[in-house]
Amino acid sequence: MVRVTRLQHKSVTWHVERLVRWAEDLATRGGKKAVDPKMGSWKMEVRKFGRSYSQLLDVMMEHAQMEERVLFPIFDRADRGLTKAAKEEHARDLPIMNGIKEIIKSIE
């Protein structure tokens, strides 16, 4: 279980970093020409970015739910309060992630 969780964390981190680089590239170009003709227009690329972000958000939500249902109860049995910080992070991050999704929708 630990290996699977680590692999998920590593994968999510890689995908977040990739989306950050992509967002920085989009912001740098500022709605101008697409660097890669295969990507289509800037607007099409923003739509693709939004879909990629939505997919990542779904994976992150499922991962967080798995942690809360499977891992956290095990950790809490071993040491009460051990998962308090992680639960607070999940509660803090969800509105931020949904806000980003809404911003992307407004750009599309």
From TrEMBL:
InterPro entries: Hemerythrin-like. Signal peptide: none annotated. It comes from the Eukaryota. Pfam families: Hemerythrin. Residues 3-108 form the Hemerythrin-like domain. PANTHER family: HEMERYTHRIN HHE CATION-BINDING DOMAIN PROTEIN, OS01G0861700 PROTEIN. This is Hemerythrin HHE cation-binding domain protein.
